[in-house]
Amino acid sequence: MENFTFYSPTEFVFGKDTEKEVGELLLKSGAKKVFLHYGGGSIKKTGLYDRVTASLKEKGIDFVELGGAKPNPVDSLVYEGIELCRNESCDFVLAVGAGSAIDSAKAIAAGVKYDGDFWDFFDQKATIEDALPVGVVLTLPAAGSEGSVATVITKEDEGLKRGLGSDLLRPRFSIINPELTYTLPPWQTAAGVVDMISHILERYISKSEDVILTDRLCEATLISIMEAARKVTNDPENYEARATICWAGTIAHNGILGVGRREEWTTHGLEHELSALYDMTHGAGLAVLFPAYMEYTLDEDVERYYRLATQAFGVPENHYDKKSVALEGIKRLKDFFREIGMPVTMHEANAKEEDIPKLLETLEKNQGRKFGSFKKLNLKDARKIYEMACA
Ligand code: NZQ
Ligand code: ZN
């Protein structure tokens, strides 16, 4: 097991009706004027906006609002948010929505406290030294941003989608009411499930040894997500299944399932180029790329993939042919992605093989020419993984 620091100061408030506690949580956090940030309007359709603002008014908390964070959130709205937040002297940023609204809110929270261009953080020209506190009311279990250090923003004019992490961006509190996820379109539920599975695999597929507790936590979480995802496909208002998916999405990315090992994140890097070029749903891009990445890196550590196949994906053990077992595990994961309605090839995701050079170009800008720790990769390897994902 590698040395680690695990710091997760977020207060998670989980369960039915918990969004009504938002005013109280803001008071407790010392918020005086809140910058309320959300997405394209689903929170207004579902009535969540009314409940959240009622809770703020009840506690006498002033707020200004900015909606419009779109999936794969963009820099232009972040600039707008920073300006508005500063002009209105807000002292707390509250995101009500899914990963894109939360990420946009986090970038605004950091940008407000920085004199330069907030994109400097994403260009690694500056590090975040201060940020407004962020709170979350979550509506979609997927990105895990409600408990993570990360924010991922797209710079539109250059087509660059980049992430950055800072402990200062971890939300002070995150409210997670599984009932809020009943209104999700099946596509978004499924894409969220793929994303959280990928967050676990980015940590699990690692060369670090002797992390058996973390391994087993990962395996249990993978099994639970897959079981629950199958239930909600037929029964979208199954509270227990929705609750399992919600909490799994949070722990998949708040760091607890990565302790003690080196994390990978290569497939996320490859995917961000897909979602930047095609404005593709992040989880859909991962469904296309993860099985290809796994097959491509299988020989690097067959034992690791054998364990995953037998302990998480239910493949019977066969010590005489571990590679076949490992391959069957990857196949079962791909079949599962297909079963829940995700694309599993570039073609199914409306991505074109002839665009691979464009993907490699932005990949090089974001990751350089060499990346990966489980298997050391270069741009030729990346090309092969994209090509394998075409089939
Ligand atoms: O925008 P609205 O109108 O709210 O609609 C959204 C949006 O269209 C809709 N939606 C959300 N909750 C709903 C709902 N519709 C009905 N009922 C509800 N309860 O769902 C759509 C997708 O929203 P989005 O915020 O894009 O989804 P997600 O949570 O999957 O976030 C994706 C973004 O997060 C980034 C991804 O790259 C992508 O940009 N990631 C962020 C990470 C982080 N900060 O730690 C890590 C991840 O790996 C990921 O990269
Ligand atoms: Zn992700």
Descriptive account of the structure:
The protein is an alpha/beta fold. It folds into two domains: 11-180, Rossmann fold (3-Layer(aba) Sandwich), CATH 3.40.50.1970; 184-390, Dehydroquinate synthase-like - alpha domain (Dehydroquinate synthase-like, alpha domain), CATH 1.20.1090.10. The protein has helices at residues 22-28, 42-45, 48-58, 75-87, 99-112, 119-122, 186-204, 212-234, 239-251, 266-278, 282-297, 302-311, 322-339, 356-367, 379-390; strands at residues 11-14, 33-38, 62-66, 92-97, 134-138, 150-155, 160-165, 173-176, 370-371, 377-378. It binds 5,6-dihydroxy-NADP and zinc ion. Residues 39-43, 46, 71-72, 97-101, 103, 139-140, 142-145, 148, 150-152, 180-181, 183-184, 188, 192, 195, 253, 268, 282 line the site of 5,6-dihydroxy-NADP (NZQ).
Question: Which helices and strands, and how do they pair?
Answer:
Elements: E1 11-14, H1 22-28, E2 33-38, H2 42-45, H3 48-58, E3 62-66, H4 75-87, E4 92-97, H5 99-112, H6 119-122, E5 134-138, E6 150-155, E7 160-165, E8 173-176, H7 186-204, H8 212-234, H9 239-251, H10 266-278, H11 282-297, H12 302-311, H13 322-339, H14 356-367, E9 370-371, E10 377-378, H15 379-390
Parallel strand pairs: 1-8, 2-3, 2-4, 4-5, 5-8
Antiparallel strand pairs: 6-7, 9-10
Helix pairs in contact: 1-3, 4-5, 7-8, 7-9, 7-11, 8-9, 10-11, 10-14, 11-13, 11-15, 12-13, 14-15
The chain binds 5,6-dihydroxy-NADP (NZQ) and zinc ion.
Zinc ion is lined by residues 143, 195, 198-199, 268, 282.
